[in-house]
Design brief:
six-stranded parallel β-sheet, binds nicotinamide-adenine-dinucleotide
Length: 329
């Protein structure tokens, strides 16, 4: 039987949820809700019911809802959808405060519902290939991962700075590749064109002095999404937009041939629908995203006070958080 799914918030991200769910054979898309009435046209194209009020969509009894409203509204919509008995896919980051993220996770636990968070880069085929290359030892011992994520600012992002909005991708990715939580963060950041910080440089410290570096900017006219991975055997370079992984083996750049390109969001949504249908745990859980905002908010604190923030409680903590003891890296 198909899973009954609804989408709340169908702007630049949510419209892709609508398109992909409408194409998944395991999904019955029961409705789309958005305060913007022009979304009714999108709903009509996909032959799905439109609601201006998301509470009306919740009355259609969807089993799963995608929440792609602005980040500061996630908590209100998530708690209402949980009350209506839905499993959730919340776009990343889970929320903009630790308390509101904790409230979502707590409510889901009480109601026995699953919370997936849309850290879509985990489903980028180039990241999947890089994770394989690191796990198989192809790169040697990895001691530095640097992510560059820059591009022009879009005014629709009004309620968070770049660290929560984009940096949460990279905090998740680097921790995922090390299979560990960061033990300290130090950041620089400032606001030039936005109310919140619009450029930042973040350093993360992991076990055995492994490092993560994240350069973020909304001041760049040119869009770049790259990862540079320093291993003792090979140097890896990932282009997240091109979905490529090439390694330098000491003599030459080598195409690993490991990357089969696909749409990351399609892979993410197909995987979560399967997880709900088969009662499996989320690939990217609410707890994972809570960790990413904990580190992101600490990075904001760090650049504000000019000092590092330490997480002694993260020493030797595995990541993703949902891994059980026999799957830990
Ligand atoms: N995973 C990713 O790579 C990725 C990329 C972009 C955005 N996002 C996340 O998706 C979320 C939305 O971002 P966006 O860029 O699509 O923003 P957007 O402004 O383009 O879309 C938000 C939509 O929510 C609607 N909305 C606002 N309040 C509503 C309400 N009360 N009820 C119903 N609809 C409401 C708006 O009308 C708009 O259509 C954010 O949390 C953002 O961080 C994730």
């Amino acid at each position: 039987m198909a899973l009954r799914v609804g989408v709340i918030g169908a702007g630049s991200m949510g419209k892709h949820h609508v398109r992909i769910y409408s194409e998944l054979p395991t999904v019955e898309l029961v409705g789309v809700a958005d305060i913007d009435e022009s979304v009714a046209e999108l709903a009509a194209i996909h032959n799905v019911r439109f609601h201006k009020d998301y509470q009306e969509l919740l009355k259609q009894a969807p089993e799963l809802v995608s929440i792609a409203v602005p980040t500061s509204l996630h908590v209100e919509v998530a708690l209402a959808a949980l009350e209506a008995g839905c499993h959730l896919l919340i776009e990343k980051p889970i929320s903009n405060t630790l308390d509101s993220a904790g409230a979502i996770i707590e409510s889901a636990k009480e109601r026995g519902r699953k919370v997936f968070v849309g850290h879509v880069e985990r489903f980028n085929p180039a990241v999947i290939a890089l994770k394989d290359a690191i796990s198989s030892g192809k790169l040697g011992e990895v001691h530095s991962i640097s992510n560059l994520r820059v591009g022009a600012y879009n005014r629709r992002i009004f309620d968070t700075g770049i660290i929560l909005d984009l940096g949460s991708h990279d905090i998740d990715l680097i921790s995922y590749l090390y299979s560990r939580k960061a033990e300290a963060v130090f950041a620089l950041g400032a606001a030039k064109i936005h109310e919140y910080e619009d450029h930042a440089a973040i350093s993360l410290k992991f076990a055995q002095s492994a490092a993560g570096y994240i350069e973020l900017s909304w001041l760049s006219p040119y869009k770049v999404r790259k990862m540079f991975v320093v291993g003792t055997e090979h140097f890896g370079l990932v282009d997240l937009i091109q979905q490529s992984l090439i390694v330098y083996d000491g003599k030459d750049w080598v195409d690993t041939g490991l990357v089969e390109r696909d749409e990351p969001l399609k892979l993410e949504l197909a995987s979560l629908v399967e997880a709900v249908l088969n009662d499996q745990p989320p690939a990217v859980s609410g707890e994972d995203s809570l960790y990413t905002i904990q580190v992101a908010l600490a990075a904001i604190e760090s650049y504000s006070k000019g000092d590092a923030v330490h997480f002694p409680e993260h020493a030797n903590e595995p990541y993703p958080t949902a891994l059980n003891s026999n799957e830990r890296g």
